[in-house]
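I wish you would study the pair of lines that follows with an eye to the fold:

===
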Amino acid sequence: MSYPVSYYCPHCGAVVELERDGYLADKSVTPYPLVGWEYVDPAEAFENTVEEASAGSRTLSDDADGVHFVCGESGPDGLRWTGEVSEANDVDEPALSSPCGREFYLSFVRFEDGREVEPVPESEYVDIGP
């Protein structure tokens, strides 16, 4: 059985509903991909059934560590943009036109050798002028 789960774009706050199985292993929704995570589009298989999760299987695809969204882009059955805008205080640009068309990422919890993997922030390089 699946249920609609709501997420919002971290750029503009546009709300999307994604049909999900009852077993969720969500880690975060970010405006950038986590280093080392592999993402698939919402139309691709990205999660396992409750039975598979109970047996210890992570995902249907060993490469799927999360879902890649494009804000406002229509997708498969089970993906619906609600037309609502989140008023959460962590939306980057609340005045931005919604949906904004920018990318964002739903990341799942990952395990390696039985331990949860913590994401490593992407390095930011700064050029210091002469």
About this structure: The first helix runs from residue 50 to 54. The longest strand covers residues 14-21. Residues 49-61 have pLDDT under 50 and may be disordered.
